[in-house]
Amino acid sequence: MSFIKPIGDDLKLNKGQELTLEVQVIAKPVPVSFAWTLNETELVHDAATIFIEESFDATTYITTYTLRLVDLKEEQTGTISVELTRGEDETLSGSMELTVLGNIFGHLWCNQY
Question: 20 to 30 A Cα–Cα from 101, which one of 6, 58, 76, 107?
């Protein structure tokens, strides 16, 4: 089991923006469970601001896991992680840092320096 598309680099986004993260894993057999977390708290699909999807390609054994956060809030700043589990002793994980800025001026300043 290994990532063919890891979680990606740290990001700085503005409050109100949308974040989409996607990882792809090749594994046979496929992972039996997965979880996206923000600051070690599991994120749950709510069809309003948190969207979590999983798709599997049976010909390539590639599974795609997608997390989409809509209308970001400053309190969502922190570490976003994904953990995949296959069996009792095999896990694969990745993480990135998300910074949600309070206004566009903070974002412009961060990008200039």
Answer: 6
